[in-house]
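[recover] target loaded
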């Protein structure tokens, strides 16, 4: 792995970079900015394994999520899925925000019910837009976040039923946000279907393997389904076939790496496990219309 490729950060890494302390529950962190930012805490593209909400209380932030540019202002919130490449481009000096991040392990360890999963299914929706919260929704969200953060702080004196308050406080906050999302997007499918489950499992395996495995057969074998069934399900859920989603992952990573001026095209080809630079160049041009060198010059 080249030292300047896209970094992967754990929750504790992000917590430290934002100047916060680790909290009580492993796999859950609530961040409420206390001071204005003098500089961007993480100035390069990075990934995490966590689900993340980001709610802007004041000011403005420009971020890229998988190369899509978002501008978030006061009372606007965005949902960031695991393995998303996030790049903070610009922050206003008066920025204040609330962030919630949690891992799949936190969900599993707390034995949430199926109805709880159904409430969280907006995480599986494609192309989730940013949400604009009303004044009342913002006040309620911040109040729930403060309650959860207070009980999750290791510096706080442990109250009776602390773990129960954290568990129920978290799910109350998630239901609150789910209600806001469902109100804004009433046609979202309420049930967590088998097709969505297969899609999530495919995307999870894809995120771990796309650099070295680019055949649909590999992923179908991992999921114990036929290639035809896999592509049909993915097309129904995401609008793209398995091969298209594989190509999208490779090309997105290639574009991000090519934008890094310290990496040569040969190093990018090697990082993405292509047999040689020429084969990578043909693959990239077929998908984008640009040669890697031309894309590097214009990016």
């Amino acid at each position: 792995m080249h030292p300047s490729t896209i970094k992967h950060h754990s929750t504790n890494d992000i917590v430290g970079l934002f100047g916060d302390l680790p909290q009580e529950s492993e796999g859950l962190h609530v961040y409420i900015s206390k001071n204005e930012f003098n500089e961007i805490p993480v100035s390069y593209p990075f990934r995490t394994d966590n689900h993340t909400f980001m709610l802007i209380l004041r000011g403005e932030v420009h971020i890229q999520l998988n190369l899509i540019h978002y501008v978030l202002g006061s009372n606007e919130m965005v949902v960031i899925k695991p393995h998303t490449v996030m790049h903070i481009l610009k922050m206003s000096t008066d920025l204040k925000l609330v962030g919630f991040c949690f891992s799949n392990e936190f969900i599993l360890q707390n034995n949430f019910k199926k109805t709880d999963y159904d409430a969280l299914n907006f995480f599986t929706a494609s192309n989730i837009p940013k949400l604009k919260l009303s004044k009342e929704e913002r006040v309620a969200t911040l109040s729930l976040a403060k309650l959860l953060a207070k009980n999750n702080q290791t510096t706080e004196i442990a109250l009776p039923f602390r773990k129960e308050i954290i568990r129920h406080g978290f799910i109350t906050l998630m239901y609150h946000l789910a209600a806001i999302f469902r109100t804004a997007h009433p046609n979202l499918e309420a049930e967590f279907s088998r097709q969505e489950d297969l899609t999530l499992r495919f995307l999870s395996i894809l995120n771990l393997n796309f650099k070295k495995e680019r055949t649909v057969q590999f992923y179908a074998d991992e999921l114990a389904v036929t290639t035809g069934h896999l592509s049909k399900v993915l097309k129904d859920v995401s609008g793209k076939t398995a091969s298209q989603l594989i190509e999208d992952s490779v090309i997105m990573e290639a574009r991000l790496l090519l934008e890094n001026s310290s990496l040569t095209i040969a190093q990018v080809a090697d990082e993405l496990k292509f047999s040689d630079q020429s084969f990578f160049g043909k693959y990239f041009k077929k998908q984008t219309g640009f040669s890697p060198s031309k894309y590097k010059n214009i990016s």
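[recover] notes: The first strand starts at residue 7 and ends at 8.
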